[in-house]
Write a structure and sequence with these properties.
This protein is an alpha+beta fold. Helix content is about 65%, strand content about 10%. Strands 1-2 form a two-stranded parallel sheet.
Length: about 60
């Protein structure tokens, strides 16, 4: 779970969440994504960014207002 203050939804926080999600994706699916990008000749960073954004929807957020 990720705990956020309602006033803490600025750009810096969003970047931190995406970076955290990107690390999760690398940990869970890194090898599979690398194999896919090599096989289909696509950009690894772009693929990681897309998967990190999808991964954000699997998080559970708690807002303190």
């Amino acid at each position: 779970m990720i705990y956020l203050n309602f006033t803490d939804l600025n750009e810096e926080t969003q970047e931190r969440l995406i970076a955290s999600s990107k690390e999760d994706v690398k940990e869970k699916y890194g090898k599979d994504i690398m194999n896919y990008t090599t096989k289909h000749n696509t950009n690894l960073d772009k693929m990681l960014d897309e998967e990190a954004l999808r991964n954000l929807y699997s998080y559970k957020y708690v807002f303190n207002i």
